[in-house]
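Pasting as-is:
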Amino acid sequence: MRDKKQFVSIPETNSSISIYDVRELIVSSETNISSLPKDVLRELVSIRETIYSLESRYRVFLHLCREKAGTYRMIHSDLPDLSKPTIYRALEDLTALGVVELVRRIPGIGTRGRMPRVYKILGAEAEEVIEVCRKHRLLGTPGYREALRIKQLILDEFLEPKGKKEITKIQIIQICKDRCSKVFNYVDIADIVARELNAEGIRVWM
């Protein structure tokens, strides 16, 4: 039983339904929806169809469901094939639907005095938004971006093709030594890579 529900107001009907029901209906194939009132179910399905109707909108929504919040920089880092206007259009659409909320800006960060916006999925906790702000700052550093590149390389080439969910720190260090740009200290990059892999559920043996 869920408590502390976050609710979304559906513009067409002005009724409120649980945002957790929206997320579960969209991202889970196992959601039990038989107990939902028919009017609520119709509204949920309407939201789902609107999000599904455009691939870029759906991908941005899934990113926010997974990360709980994000900035343009973070979303583009995860979805590099989406252009800036496409990402912002998706965020505007999701905000208009009521499933995403513009919650704050990050003071002192941005280009030419502009502060980047932070969008959160409804139901995200304050601590999760703070963590997103920390990651946004890190993404502005070349070393962290290099670590994310190596992390994805490890997932794509060494773990996912073999169905593995674990790796040793020595293996990470060796991969960083072989594949990391020479302008970085590969040991420092390996520390960040290990931390990021852990965050994605990969067991890193020390």
